[in-house]
Amino acid sequence: MRIVLVGPPGAGKGTQAAFLAKNLSIPHISTGDLFRANISQQTELGKLAKSFMDKGELVPDEVTIAMAKDRMEQPDAASGFLLDGFPRNVSQAEALDEMLTAERMKLDAVLDLEVPEDEVVKRIAGRRICRNDSSHVFHVSYKAPKEEGVCDVCGGELYQRDDDSEETVRKRLEVYHTQTEPIIDYYKAQGLVVTISALGKVEEVTERAMEALKREDDDK
User: Fold this and answer.
1) Active-site residue, from 22, 106, 161, 171
2) Is 88 a catalytic residue?
3) In 3-state terms, what secondary structure has residue 66?
4) Which domains, ranges and CATH numbers included, belong to the chain?
5) Which residues pair with 30 in a beta bridge?
6) Where does this protein hold ATP (predicted)?
7) In this structure, how many other beta carbons lie within 10 angstroms of the beta carbon of residue 17?
8) Are residues 208 and 197 in contact, defined by beta-carbon separation less than 8 angstroms?
9) 59-73, pLDDT tens digit by residue?
């Protein structure tokens, strides 16, 4: 299957993408991973992207599109892929359609993870990270440490990242609503959108998504 995963920040896209890709035996293609791989390998596209990032500028769509195209042409993506973070806007969605049409391929589904805005803020603004080891992550509501402000694992200080403040989260949501959400309407016009609730336990959301994708596949 060829799937695009969309949803607001805090919807759990990265987590669900990993599980879904494993269950469907297709590669998980994340925009973040593409940038990191190209920059670390110092590819021409990586150098170009870094030149913009070093100036604090957004990487142009054409660079992101070229990275995605290169990754989708790898042998492991021949039978399908799951795109996470791409396309990020309608112009990228149009470019993806052109790419797939040129290769005589098409998307099978666009999986929209739906989460209420207040829940997004609660999920992200409640995160606390250990200063000693950023892999030690807690949450004031869902995974509270035994002692407030102290990491259960190493005793380090827990803090809230600037990116996780409520003000920043709401700004990120505004960007999502303005830039990314319009692609849902774009794909709805093609009859590709499958919307599921991203509330509940991780495994429940994965099961919900797999069932929805199976129904979509069966209907075709």
Assistant:
1) 161
2) yes
3) helix
4) 2-215 (3.40.50.300)
5) 84
6) 10-15, 127, 137-138, 200
7) 22
8) yes
9) 999 999 999 999 999
